[in-house]
Each structure stands twice: as structure tokens, then as C-alpha cells.
Amino acid sequence: MSFDDQLPPKTRLLRAAAELLANSDGSPVSTRQITKLAGVTAPTLYHHFGDKEGLFDAVVAAGFEEYVAGERDFAPSGEPLEDVRRMWDNHVQFGLTQPHLYLVMFGNIRPESRPAIVADAESLLEEMLSKAAIAGQINVPPREAARSILAANVGVTLMLIAEPLEDRNLELSTMTRDSMIFAVSTETARGAAADDSGKSSVVVAAIALNAALQASHSDQLSSSELKLFLEWLHRISSSS
Amino acid sequence: MSFDDQLPPKTRLLRAAAELLANSDGSPVSTRQITKLAGVTAPTLYHHFGDKEGLFDAVVAAGFEEYVAGERDFAPSGEPLEDVRRMWDNHVQFGLTQPHLYLVMFGNIRPESRPAIVADAESLLEEMLSKAAIAGQINVPPREAARSILAANVGVTLMLIAEPLEDRNLELSTMTRDSMIFAVSTETARGAAADDSGKSSVVVAAIALNAALQASHSDQLSSSELKLFLEWLHRISSSS
DNA sequence: TAGCACCTATAGCAACGCTATATGAAGTGA
DNA sequence: TCACTTCATATAGCGTTGCTATAGGTGCTA
């Protein structure tokens, strides 16, 4: 009926909220349910978390830790784009196993907590994409690529969550994933060769150099020189 | 204070709900607010719509009509993939101008109404993609392509909605859009490059950029800027 | 022992979604 | 014209929600 009485009320509240949130089929979870399961009374909740939303934020933060841990856990394969694929799949998997947590994290607009979470997820991806950029494997700046891929990843995951379980088709995920990665990558594992002027190769090289510079802290240029240099690089990178 | 008394209560309820939903900054809208603005009492709402959710569904349905109308309004350009681009942009625009409506439509899981809406949006896209398929312009079945593109479209739109208005960057949309379309299309308007021997370092990238720049006559930099830029490049390239 | 944070409980408020019941208006058939 | 049905609206109030004013314990330090 109630929770482990040894644990402090704050922890019991967190666990109770997480459990109820996970098992509620989309229906809202009331503070009374939570406090009853945790074996405490209302003011305790508000003392520790200020708000119902505050409690949920704490639950989400915990869930996000789990998500990030999942994203970091596998060792780099040496093939950055392959790792990006695994990060994508891990993201989808997290959304499907914890749909309610995921919805609070990504399916809502909550100007306070959401951008931070999104930014974190983005930088995880960007980190990996930077490696790909250094290896000259992508033709788009890592930051933009990360934003774009993450957006598609979120969209796919929400789509799958909303779909009834029986006709949930993961092919949507793999197809969209590979489309996005293919689009930003320099591999031309596609038919007809390319002719185009050297312009896009300039862009690729500029992006690669930019990423490499970020990673290496080269000291060949003074900081003021470097600043201007990077600005020019960016200008070159973002030419059409 | 109240709404046009000439209109039937049902219509007034719909308009009041739509107006309040549009102007509420994410905060929930109560039935009491709605009935007060519409100038009716509670049972009237429940007589016509059964439910608060029923009323909201009706509002969403109206909003969806508007969305579909927007998707259909422009005449086909004869270039199906170009039309897909415009549908994408229209979708994003709809989401940004009616964020709360959009969130109810796409950012939630509501097993009843959502799949129908999604299916409709999907078939609009699929219709257009079928034309592209007939013209041999895509290399993926239209249905799968539509699902995939729509998922990415939704993800991007939610991303943009969640972003604070001042640093909302539509480039995310166009880039993701073109990535998705490029990935499913048979056109290979892609640059060469991807020559690199695999070893990646600042030096290699700098050399590559240097060579590429020599060959391409990029006009992103003025001649004086270019001169200094190349000098720095050389300094970086000849570092130990 | 006194004082002081900290934490928790009792009790209850205002607002919420919703409804049992009643009343009015409008049409229909004899 | 009159009962009868049907649809639409209103009065009043139920149960639940998120939240809080207030007070009581508990364990420290002085």
C-alpha cells in the first residue's frame, strides 16, 4: 500500500510520482494519489518541491539522467555516423519505454525546463557529429546537423508513441534516421556520380577544419586572429 | 464582454473556446471561462459537446479544416517535390501561428482524435508524393516517404514552437526539409569531395580547404580578406 | 533548559469538470 | 385548442483538484 518507510519523504515522493506517472495511461496524476502512495501529506510535497510541476520536473530530471546515461554508455565505435545511428535508436527506445516521461520532456512547451533538456540532448549529438565533421564525413556544421537530426528524431518518436502498439512500425524510425544522416553526410553511396563545381568541397573542407580547430586548440593563431578566422570560416561554410 | 448574441450558443462556444485557447499562454483554459465568454451556462456546453475534450476536439477539427485548406490552396506547380516543400513550409507556418491548436493536434497523445488527423495530413503529403513517384523522382514508396517526412515536419515545428521567439531560426526547418526530400529523391545534386584519406587533423583539413579554395574562386570573402585568410591557413598547415 | 531551524500534519479554501433536475420554447397530431 | 414529445437552456450543487494558513513536533546548538 505505502512505500518503504525507511526512505526520506522526498525520495518517497519522487518514486511514487515516477511510478504513478509511468503507469497512468495518459490520464493525469493527482497530488493526492502521489502523497497517498508516498505515505505523506500534501504540505510535505509543497515544502520539498514547491509545486506539482516542481515535483514532475524533478522526476523528469531523473529520467533525463537515465536518458543521457543511455546515450553515453556505449563505447564509440570509431565510426561516428554509426554512433549517431545508435544514439537515434536509443532516443526512440527511451521514448517508447517511458512514453509519459518522454512526453513531459519533449512533447510539451514548458519554456523553463524544456530548452535546457533539448540543449543537452542536442550537445550530445553535436559532440558525436563533430567527430564526423573532423573526419570530413558531413557537409553541414555539426551544430545545425544536430538540431536538425534531433528534431526529426523527436518527431519520429512522438509519432511512434501516438501510434497504437500493435501497428507500431519501427521502419519509420530507421528510414527517417538514415535519410537524415544520408542527407548531411558526404558519402555518396548513391548512383550517379557528382559533377558539381568544387564549391561544395570548399564547404566540406571548411566545416572539417572548423570542427578540427574546435577540438584541437591550435595555437598557431592568436585569439583575435582566431576569432576573425573562425568568422570567415563560418561565412564560407554557410555559402549555398 | 460577451459574444455576439445573434449566433447560436454552439457557435459561440466554439468561438469562445478557440479565442481563449489561442490567447492562453499555455495555461489551461477552464470551462467556466469559456461558458462565461460565450454567455451560456455549463450544461449547454455539455449538451452540445458532451465533454470539455469534445469541445476542444471540435475546435481542433475546425483548425484542421483551416490547415487542410492551406495545404490545398496553392495550385500544383507541376514540380511535385517543390509542392512538397511548400506543404512543409505551410505546415510549419500553421504551427507557429496557431501553436496551441497545433500542440493539441500533434503534441499530444490522444488515441481517439490524433491518429485521424495525422492520417489526413499524411495522405495529403502522400498524394503529392505519388505524383513525384510517377515522375520517377523518388526512390521510396510514397506512403513511407509521407510518414517519414511528416514525422520530421512535426518534430521541427514542435522544436520551433518551443523555442523563444527571438532566436527562432527557420533555417532549421528549411535544412531538415531539404534533407528529407533529398534523401527520398532520385536527384543527385550533390557535390564531389569525400576524397579524404581518412586521417583527420587540423592540418589535413586546412590543406584540403586551401586546395578547394584555389579551385573554386569562392566569393564569400573579399580579395583582401582572402589573402589574409590564406596566409593563416598556410600557417596552420605548416604547423608541426 | 531555551531557542531555533527544519520538517510534517490538520483542516480547509477556491476553482475545477461535470451532472441531477427543472424550466422554457418549438413543433406535431387529434 | 390541447396534450405530448423533443430539443435547448438554466439553477444549484457534488466530488475532486491544486494549494496553503496555521500549528505542532523533532533534533540540533547554546
Description:
Chains A, B: Pfam families: TetR_N. Chains A, B: Residues 30-49 bind DNA. Chains A, B: InterPro entries: DNA-bd_HTH_TetR-type_CS, Homeodomain-like_sf, HTH-type_TetR-like_transc_reg, HTH_TetR, Tet_transcr_reg_TetR-rel_C_sf. The structure is a homodimer of 240-residue chains. In chain A, helix 5 packs across helix 6 (99-106). Chain A folds into three domains: 9-50, Arc Repressor Mutant, subunit A; 74-187, Orthogonal Bundle (Tetracycline Repressor, domain 2), CATH 1.10.357; 197-240, no CATH class. Chain A has helices at residues 9-23, 31-38, 42-49, 52-73, 80-97, 99-106, 113-134, 142-162, 171-184, 199-216, 223-237. By secondary structure, chain A is mostly helical. The longest helix of chain A has 22 residues, at 52-73. Chain A is built from eleven helices and no strands.
